Amino acid sequence: MYIRRDKSNLHFGRQARRRGSRSLLVIWSITMLLALAVLWRFNTVQSWVLASVGTNTTPTLDAISRAKLGERAYLAGNLEAAIQHYEQAATQNPDNVNILFEYGRMLVYRSYAGRSFFYHAEKALEVARHAVEIAPESAQAQALLCLALVANGRAEEAISAGLIAQQLAPDYAEAKAYLATAYYYAGRPNQALQTADAAVKLNPDSVDARRALALALAYVGQFSAAVQQYERAIQIHPRLDVLYFELALYYKALNNYDASIAAFDQILAMEPENVKAYVRKCETYFTMRQDQAAQEACEQAIQLDPDYPEAYRQLGMVQYTRRNYEGAIESFEKCSELQTQQGVPLINQEIECYYVRGLAHTLLARCDEAWPVLQTALQMNPNEHIKGLINQGLMSCVNYGDFSIDQIPTPIPPTPVPPEPIGVF
Q1: Residue whose C-alpha is closest to residue 425's, from 265, 279, 285
Q2: What interhelical angle do 139-151 and 155-168 show, nearest 10?
Q3: Whether 244 contacts 252, CB under 8 Å
Q4: Which residue of 33, 40, 44, 313 is 20 to 30 Å from 397, comparing CA positions?
Q5: Digit-coded pLDDT (tens) for 401-418
Q6: HSE (side-chain half, CA atoms, 13 Å) at 35
Q7: Beta carbons of 314 and 282 less than 8 angstroms apart
Q8: Helices marked H in 169-222 — which ranges?
Q9: Distance between CA atoms of 300 and 379, rounded to whole angstroms?
Q10: Distances from the Cα of 330 to the Cαs of 230, 280, 285, in angstroms?
């Protein structure tokens, strides 16, 4: 190999030393500049180093960015994620009424997933009250309070809040929509229909306005018109499951069971593990007298969520009809046990899990078990039809000679019950 000695580092003499000193000076200068740059950019370098070793250094998003993520999740139909994002946004900026409003709406919509999700409605009421406290003159805050009160079964109070919201902002469609919903639950169909129609005229693209009008139309028996409003609302927001649940109920009211099943299948296409959709399919198949398909749907719901009381209630109904009384009793017991564990008040629990269970016991000649269950059912404010079935069960135990007719309690006078929220449970 030929080595060029003029390029070698092995130099001797004065010239070589002078060049070496100059090189050291250059290296030292560069090193100092790099050190100063590192100090100046310490935070950036620190983030890069921490990231290189796997430490999570994702910058904290501000409240508005979090709220935008919440909106994105809502439009995607993921209410749980939407709630999480809006909750964080509200924590970061607790005085932003816009954020509080959207947070409250998400909570209310999620509360429709079942009785055990009612705590979301209670949380929505807390959020709404906070919004009104910090901004009493905000139509948004008052409208949210109206919606939250409706979700908590307090329709008359909700009307007051809705009227205030309407006075503060006469052209605010959501205020009228929630007021119309309050009228609906308060049993005032004419006012519900008029107010909901005004809401839709103010904003034809408001999902809440369309839904309010659909409910009002259904209240007066115009099911076909209600279906049209739901279909329009779904065009606006095609991934909001509550719209499909309620639409399916009115398809059933029109005896269009295939369309009802298709609505639930659409929910399952978007969310394959939606337990409520399987329970509703079970109910629909049960109505169609397709008991095997009904039982399979209920069992699928229980497999997805073993703590979902409504699934056991409907499975028990199918088993009872199929004369599997032992299985029905087991399912109904699980239903009532779960609701009690989840803090659902007796008056709000699934009454079938009591009175039908009692009837199943009587058919098996087990009056010792039937009697207390049927008496409990009488405390749940049953309607006249159910009350008659309960009394038949008690009388059968009297006929068996196990109990005296004097032991049948005098039913408590029925108390007015507002219409059950359509599509909620």
Answers
A1: 279
A2: 160
A3: no
A4: 313
A5: 665 555 545 444 444 444
A6: 6
A7: yes
A8: 173-185, 189-202, 207-219
A9: 32
A10: 38, 21, 21
Q: Could you tell me the pTM of the whole model? A: 0.80
DSSP code per residue over 115-169 = GGGTHHHHHHHHHHHHHHHH-TT-HHHHHHHHHHHHHTT-HHHHHHHHHHHHHH-
**Tokens representing residue 376 in the block:** 């409990």
- Helix, strand, or coil (residue 401): coil
Minimal CA–CA distance to 73: which of 288, 240, 281, 319? 240
Amino acid found at 324: N
Amino acid identity, position 167: Q
The number of angstroms, rounded, from the C-alpha of 120 to the middle of its chain's C-alpha atoms is 7
CA distance 297 to 318: 11
Those residues whose C-beta lies under 8 Å from the C-beta of residue 305, and which sit 6 or more positions away, are 275, 311
In tens, the pLDDT along 193-232 reads 999 999 999 999 999 999 999 999 999 999 999 999 999 9
Q: Among residues 206, 200, 107, which one has the least CA distance to residue 150?
A: 107
**Residue percentage of the chain with pLDDT more than 90:** 77
Q: Is the separation of the CB atoms in 143 and 165 below 8 Å?
A: yes
Give the ranges where 257-351 is alpha helix by DSSP (H): 257-270, 275-287, 291-304, 309-321, 325-341
pLDDT band at 114 (very low <50, low <70, confident <90, very high): confident
Q: The tokens of 334 are what? A: 């699980």
